[in-house]
Amino acid sequence: MARETTPLLPRYKRSRSQSPIWSGTWIGGAVLVVLSIIVFALWLMGPPSGWSALPPEPIRVAIVGAGPAGIFAATHLRDLSAKQHRPILITIFERKSSIGGRLIPDTPIFPFDNSHETPLSAEASSYTSPASDLKDIVPTYKSAGWPFQLWKNVEKTLYVYNKPVELTRPSSAASFGSRVWEWWCFGGSVNGAKGIGSQYRRQIRKIRELGIQDSVNAIINLLELDQPRSTAGAAIFAHHGVSKTYINRIIKSESLVQFGQEADSMNLFTLGMMAYAADEGKSQKGGRLVSVLEDMLSRSRNIHLRLNTEAFGLRKLNSTKWVLASRHSRTLEDETGYLFDGVILAAPIASLQLDVRDANLTFPGEFVEYQPRHVTWFTSSNPLDSGQVGEKGLKYPSRIITRIPPSWKTLEHKTGAIEIFDMGFHIQRSPYGNAQERMYRVLSDMHVTDENVRDLLGGKDSSWIARHHIEQGYPVLGPQTSFSAFILDDLVWHTSALEELHSSVGVSAWAGKNVADLAFRKIRERN
Q1: Nearest alpha-carbon partner for 282 in 174, 158, 155, 418
Q2: How many domains does the chain have?
């Protein structure tokens, strides 16, 4: 009987093992040898120029401040990163609980303390007009969508600085009767003053056409702006056909509320810009600054926003790295250090109070000096006592600029002027029904007490009141001989240098973009 040689193997494997092993695999072996030779040759040649075996490390940038300058710097860095195919990680530190910058209260203020209402901000204050600024800058930088409808607001402004006079703002949108009244009071002074401002405004708008600039001096020279270095007082308008009456009643009044300064102390450029803004409506209608900035961040990846977090320390680790220390802005706890390739200070330097170690930052010779401002909101079902702010029987206008009422006995004020803005009707909801209340906003350089508000209301109490103190409200814009650079150290920049020239939402946004360009270019060289 024949013996089976492989009894432990299945039949199909026995038949397979008996076939020649090299019968069909010599071609595969040859291919493997050729591929091995090609791979070895490529390894000897090295990677093509510009290639990297590993993806580059992301650039890490810290931005201190979540106002217009900080948000625009962050979104522009993101855009540069995408164009240059260089990954980036951006961290924004903001000590407040909301973005928006200095005009936003430290904690949200809701009308009637109702969190379902839109939070209040001082962004409609006279010295800025965010709606018109945003209309210019957002389409230009294409950093965010524009879901808001903007339109020019027409309002009545009552000036009570010597004698009461009411003007329609802007005068170009006034009715025929209002224009006749304006001409009767001031002749062509309104157009004359605004014409001067228009020249300077056209110059400052050209800033968006400039390339990357490392100093404010360079910007002034390129735009041929010599006016910030000179002063001639408000009387300079008289040389352009502006009447002395208009200068004393309107120009000087607007300078006190727009910039918190006497007109005669300002440089010529600021006077012109102020005269232009004096003829513009200052309404809250149109897009809100905070909404636009929030929309920009929502479209941005790799941008980490840390609210309620203040930066308190900055240390130079070596020639390419900085350590930024932060903590909770209210509890002053949870101290943490982060490593960054570059740092952008997008808030007034004087307000940061950074503890800088192992470095000698080249701070400007003089910080930008700021005037503090107080904002007071209050509501009432009763109209204001027009006799306290103008003359009896006068219908209360949209906006009023007046001296501090004599009944406000205080030594705290500096300019002696306040602005009262009518914000329209709000609904106060209560268990007993809904009441229609009218809201007003007072802008001043002094604390407005409950008694002061009661005085405006003819001895009656307000139904609700809230306050906001802006420590760095208005930059002091007097004549200067030299201006600061944006660079504080090899890898540290700041945006507030531009406030030595002008303060507005649009200019702050450009400063953020410009500094982002400087930072990205320098950090790429080092990494």
Answers
A1: 155
A2: 2
Note down the domain range covering 292. 59-100+287-368+481-526
Taking the CA atoms of 248, 249, 251 and 252 in sequence, report the sign of the dihedral they define.
positive
Q: What number is the average pLDDT over the span 14-41?
A: 63
| Cα Rg, the chain, nearest whole Å | 32
Exposed, middle or buried by CB within 10 Å (0-12, 13-18, 19+), for 245? Answer: middle
Q: How far apart are CA 500 and CA 498, in angstroms?
A: 5
Question: Domain containing 328 — which CATH number?
Answer: 3.50.50.60
Which of 275, 296, 325 represents a domain boundary (last residue)? Answer: 275
pTM: 0.83
**Contact, 368 vs 495, CB < 8 A?**
no
Q: How do residues 292-347 score in pLDDT, each as one tens digit?
A: 788 888 877 789 999 999 999 999 999 899 999 999 988 888 899 999 999 999 98
pLDDT digits (tens, 9 = 90+) for 224-256: 888 777 776 788 888 888 999 999 889 988 888
Separation CA 113–CA 108 (nearest Å): 9
Burial class (CB in 10 A: 0-12, 13-18, 19+), 436: exposed
Spatial separation of the C-alpha atoms in residues 335 and 327, rounded to whole Å:
4
